[in-house]
Amino acid sequence: MLHLQNYIGGELLAPAGGRYLPNIEPATGQTYSHIPDSDAQDVARAVQAAEAALPAWRRLPAEERGRLLVRVAELIERDLERLAQAESQDNGKPVSLARTVDIPRAASNFAFFGTAAQHFASETHFQEGVALNYTVRHPLGVVGCISPWNLPLYLFTWKIAPALAAGCCVVAKPSEITPYTAFLLSELCIETGLPAGVLNIVHGTGPGAGQAIIEHPAIKAISFTGGTKTGEHIARTAAPMFKKLSLELGGKNPNLIFADCDLQEAVRTSLRSSFANQGQICLCGSRIFVERPIYEQFKEQFLAGVAGLTVGDPQEPGSRQGALVSEAHLEKVLSYIALAHEEGGTLLAGGQRVQLAGRCAAGYFLQPTVFEGLAPDCRVNREEIFGPVVTLTPFDTEEEVLHWANGTEYGLAATIWTRDLNRAHRVAHALQSGIVWVNTWLHRDLRTPFGGMKSSGVGREGGLEALRFFTEPQSITVKL
């Protein structure tokens, strides 16, 4: 059976304590590999390697750092099929999704930031006859990057690439639930010739390796994507140590569909935004609000589309829905389905665990599920479920739907469907969401800031915002 290893100081190493965790394939419910159960010893070794590598790495010109990152991108593209198969096996998502979204985006992350660092400009202010004021942005130093299980390599590289491009050295922890592609990335980094210690990948649990990363005094910043409760814990731990924080947390995203929309496109895209990756994307639109004149029409077409979402083996080309990531997560989502019934919802589709035959008989599969008739302020409509469960709710006025859309603690993303340009701008500005899509979903320009409001996080990732996060400004004034 495959045993994954940590990547520390340019080498693949066993955990210091010799302990391993089972890695379960969601589609089968069976252990297929083991990962290091790392602890503070492993993190300390990784930090030591990163500190040793930092002086040379931060002095290396941005163009040379960039060439190495672009080379990593090229190797990811070369190994796309292998990485897609690994992501599907590890996460439960259809291999077709990993092949077309996850792995290409991971390559794009390295390619984008490999070149972006060369265009990262500082400010200069000239005081006529007095002084020249300019700003230099220095790498923070050693930073910690902790990524989630839903888009494993995609979000892992989303954090690592800008940190490396900015001249930082990294101690990174992928989710212990989906560690495989991070391990394969470490092999590609060795092949690339990335200097030893510049990137260190430590596998393990949040309370073990993750806690050691956020507590280590030499780690100057933490970039974390995951649940809001975990983000709160990280903030409580890191704030007294004055660490810089970027926290991309939960979402309960509204999808606002006005009567003047392109209905066919709204239905087609809403199916994706509801159930892509089995609803396990923080940007999924799980609360669908439909203007009353087209509510029944939208519902009929949406439910017809849901009926066509084949649940099956993620390795099979025809599968539109794969397995949920773990048995514990499946049970959590099922508990919210039970809660929806308790809160008076009417089940329109799904709601049941799916039992497949053959190799996937013990897998964690769930039908795409749709409810209506739930109050906008009920728990199912306020709490993050993070699974293939959505609610349909009719609305009558713009003011009403904005009140409902903003009526949760979260503020990550929202979608608007309308042909009225004035309304699109007006509603977008009124939404308490860090990201708003109009007549589309999940289109991401790597140059734009990414992040949420309220309990959906602190700070912004993406583009120059990421490079700013991993650097510290120094203002210098020279008298003329």
UniProtKB/TrEMBL annotation:
Keyword NAD found: yes
Limits of the Aldehyde dehydrogenase domain: 19-475
Recorded GO MF terms: aldehyde dehydrogenase [NAD(P)+] activity
Domain of life: Bacteria
Alphabetically ordered keywords of this record: NAD, Oxidoreductase
Assigned protein family: Belongs to the aldehyde dehydrogenase family.
Protein name: Aldehyde dehydrogenase
